[in-house]
Amino acid sequence: MLPDKGIGSAQIDPIQDDPHVDATHRRRVRHAHQQSRQAVFDTVHALNKQDLSYSEIARRTGRLSIAKWLTFETPPDRQKAALKPTSPLYFEAFLAQCWRDGNRCGRHLLYDIKQRGYTGSFSNLERLLASSRRPERSVKDSASPAPIISYQPGRDAVPIRDP
Hints:
Helices cover 52% and strands 0% of the residues. It is built from six helices and no strands.
């Protein structure tokens, strides 16, 4: 009998854990979102050419406000939010300089940016540092590749449940 794939069960997927696959997935999702915005933008302009009222266009497209979209030639780009001291990216220039100087210990970097006003968590900082460490690991690992181990659940496999 195969393991249940319901809520609370987990499967190990070596492909899903690959950072390159994850980046490709994010790129595809971003592209699909851009295409979706373009389709809505084109629909808004097509309905406007049919001399429909703004409220009727908004009702048909599901948009709350379409007046701004009608003033543009192309869909407006989404803007990033301003960085805050809770984000390690706020201290990106300082962290990059420390990284170049050889200071790569997360705890030391946390202490240094806390002195400069960082109010975020250590795990948030480590997430940013992990992206800096990945390229180094790939260069080191390319000399001696690790064996690929595939996971194949047996008959007695029990789904892993989150406590």
